[in-house]
Amino acid sequence: MKQSIREALPGLDLVLGWEQGWDALHATPLFIRKAEDVDRLILGPTCVQSLAVQLPSLKGKKVGIVVKGCDSRAVVQLLRERLLDRAEIILFGFGCDGVVSLKRLTKVLGDLDSVTSVKKTDDRLVVESPDGRREAAFDDVCAPKCLDCAWPNAVESDHFAGPRLEPRPPAESKTALERFEEKSLDERFAFWKREMERCIRCYACRNACPMCVCRDKCLAVSRNSKFVSQEANPSESFMFQLIHVMHLAGRCVSCGECERACPMDIPLGLLRAQSTAVTEELFHEQAGTDPEAPLPLLTFKTDEETIEERD
Amino acid sequence: MDTIFIQRTDIGRWLDRLAEERTVFAPTRRDGAVVYRPYRTGFVLELDAMPTTSPKEIVFPQNETLLTYSRAGNASGGAPKVEARETLPEQKAVIFGARPCGVNGLGVFDQVFDNDKTRDAYYTARRKDTRIITFACDRPRSTCFCTNVGGGPGDAAGSDVMLYPLGDGFVAEAVTTGGKAMLSLATGAPAGDREVAAKALVETAREAMPEPLELARIRENFDKCFNDMEFWEEQSGKCLSCGACAYLCPSCHCFNITDEGTESEGKRLRSWDNCMSYTFTAEASGHNPRAAKAMRLRNRVGHKFVYFPETHEGEVACRGCGRCIVSCPSSVDIRQIAKAIQEYCDDDK
Amino acid sequence: MTTNNPLMPLMATIVETVRETANIKTFRVRLDDEAAMRDFTFLPGQVGQLSLFGVGESTFVINSSPTRMDYLQFSILKTGEVTAALHRLKTGDRIGVRAPLGNWFPVELLKGKDILFVGGGIGMAPLRTLLIYMLDNRNDFGKITLLYGGRSPGDMAFQEDLKEWAARQDMDMVLTIDNPADGWAHEVGLIPNVLKEMKPTPENCIAVTCGPPIMIKFTVMALQELGFPDESIITTLERRMKCGVGLCGRCNIGGKYVCVDGPVFSWAELKDLPQEL
């Protein structure tokens, strides 16, 4: 990977990758501009951020981007929506065998500090810190999206590093969404009320979402047509989430960045999963997997084969 | 003696008694996040992890009503009757489980919201009868840097009671007379030798804290790098421009004021706002003095390390709690930005 | 402030409105509490927050003079949500007022000096206050000159005042518009260009200017070219504001808050602030 970036770098304005953050458990986006920056690049289970979120604001520049399978789906979907120019983007893909969820990891191993090393060996994650060596089954601490990842390899790439990996089989046990949907409406509403109660309206979920492209023009802060008030309460916060979900219908690439970015650990992925399940069932397609496919919600058909019309 | 040892298992009983008189805001887990919530019997306390949110929310809530208004039509066709009613809060509270950095953050609030020029009626109404029970830190996180910015893991300034963790309990020391009254409600034994032992742990933690930033140097260099947009674009590149850092920060106090309701009735709200948001400074004309993310990050860092010190005798507004680092989705590290300013050299520019 | 809650407006009633131009409307208001109105004091340059409940608050300069206290006057350019809603108000409507806020023109310092006013568009509003204040204390000041420009004849606000000022012998007035127009008997050209042609002398003279940011920029350059030192150039700034009392954090330029340390600044002061206008 480093070699192919080094070779391509002279023709590019920058390459987006990851480097280690303040400890080994936290990766942080790396903007590679000079050859020596390449040495700081890391790939591994801590490289959680979807760097695709940076691309729309870098339009006009020639940008390389290192992508996991899920990240590449965001790029592909943005290309498909003509929000990016393919000629401006060089994809450095690789096969990703899963990333860590800090939330799940601390649930299993407790609060971790000053982590010096994080290694994935087969199906285990080994974390070292001054408190000692701790390990857990990777499936217990990975991001939920990785458990049944169908797209471990970059969907599209100009350079591909390392071996191509096999997709994970669909989970045998029920998904979080299926388990949630077994609950009564009252229970589900009570759940969201409790979760949304701690929302601080920082909009990290929105800003970390690679498909959220209205940016500074978001209707959540618009005063002219107030869809959402500034009042902090579960119903207003939930209203914003529903608007976000609606804007993502048929577009969400299930990268889980909304949930990962949330500083208050609100399980926002569950809401997106629901909408994604509906659109995938209706249109038999997954967002961000084919740059040339027509956009289902922007395509008019007199007869929708999957939607039963009323008589 | 004002110093006693309280067993962890006796903390709940103490809070029960405190809660008879005051609303006790104490840390509890909500999924992975640790938040302050009004204490009730049976509440599961989080006595170890630093809360995700800062204690500012207890005296400066995410939302508060400044006034309510109504406008009633006039049947005889004249001008409608318009009324606005002030809604001042009443609060008798205890913040339990703050950390010294969070309490220091309230020091910034006190200076901004309650001074000879401006006295914020809502803030002072909440603040004046809010008492604080603080945990000294025997195990600062690797993202903590309070000693860099004038604080310390055992800093008692602003607290009414200090709790020093030791084994299966806390050495509790009253700092103020209000604290002494609160402590008299606790079940504990004389601290004895345990006081020295507990304070030694905190002192050891203090000594292990990182090397201080050169704050004077940062102030001096800020002017030099101010117009170097390439520098600021590099610093802000990975920032997502969300408000997580500001809303979790114990000293960030910027707010918005909006009217929520219809023209005939509603309320005027004050709610947290943050300088990383484009709309924060966007003017109706379309002009925005901080239109670019790089300018907004420059302002945020500038406010903490340069602008606030300019008007407050060199005091830095950042309290070194590290919340902005821990909770940043992109792992932006304000210490690194401060260091980059400190080491900024404009010789070759 | 007459209340001890700086965020709580006083109720006031609109006693008169004047349509100035297609998008500028003037409101004359009186505080409902007669005692508060009687005791209300301010200095030229200070601003107020007008509240239209259910829509919001916005900041405007009090552009009447403290020497004429029949009402407080605000002239409002329609630009956003609040100003558009304010434009719909009529005589008799009630609004909230938080005033006076901010600093003021250094009137003591201006005494005995020649004064050159350079106003563009709605930027004439703060200048009007000071100009009338000076005319009402005419003996305290030297020569008074006004250069006022608008895009077109229809953009010239304060027509009543212009008539009065044109007739006065104790001040000079030059009016200009950007492009020639039928029936326009005054200057044509951009304000900084007309200013250069006027060749005002900088000796013992203070220039006070207000207008759109781009006009201020070029006017200040023209003044500097004419030999005005930065200390002798005074301007007023605008920023998005919410609280108006130095708390909410958005109107800062470096460590200064436009709402309390401004809106009036000398160019010498502005030069030392971070360049973030």
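Chain B touches chain A at residues 30-33, 35, 48-49, 52-53, 62-63, 139, 141-143, 234, 237-238, 240-244, 246-248, 256, 258, 260, 269, 271-272, 274, 277-279, 282, 325, 327, 329-333, 335 (CB under 8 Å).
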